[in-house]
């Protein structure tokens, strides 16, 4: 079984807000996977979609394991089972710093990007 850490990019079943279904899509891990079998992830979507205020463009697509220009939609977070995750890549340091700033803004919590 794969092990995951914060800022890994994974494929995960992500819930739609508007209807009760899941879609497997790239996501960014933002929680520390513990012994619960659950982890927080943030949605990654195509950069072709209409931008939201706190979206973050992924700088290094190769390191992220993504083929098309993509954004991290920091406003959309979900809890998923770690057993459903498939490894894709890892977020580059520049994009990671931008995501942390957005998360601090959303959650009003002190977070460390390391």
UniProtKB/TrEMBL annotation:
One of its GO terms (molecular function) is DNA binding. Pfam families: PemK_toxin. This is Growth inhibitor PemK. The lineage of its organism: Bacteria, Pseudomonadati, Pseudomonadota, Alphaproteobacteria, Rhodospirillales.
């Amino acid at each position: 079984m794969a092990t995951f850490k914060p800022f890994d990019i994974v494929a995960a079943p992500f819930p739609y807000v508007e209807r009760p279904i899941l879609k497997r899509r790239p996501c960014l891990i933002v929680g520390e996977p513990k012994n619960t079998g659950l982890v927080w992830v943030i949605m990654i979507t195509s950069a072709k979609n209409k931008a939201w205020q706190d979206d973050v463009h992924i700088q290094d697509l190769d390191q992220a394991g993504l083929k098309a220009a993509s954004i991290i939609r920091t406003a959309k977070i979900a809890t998923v089972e770690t057993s459903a995750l498939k490894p894709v890549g890892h977020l580059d340091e520049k994009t990671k710093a931008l995501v942390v700033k957005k998360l601090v803004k959303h959650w009003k919590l002190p977070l460390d990007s390391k």
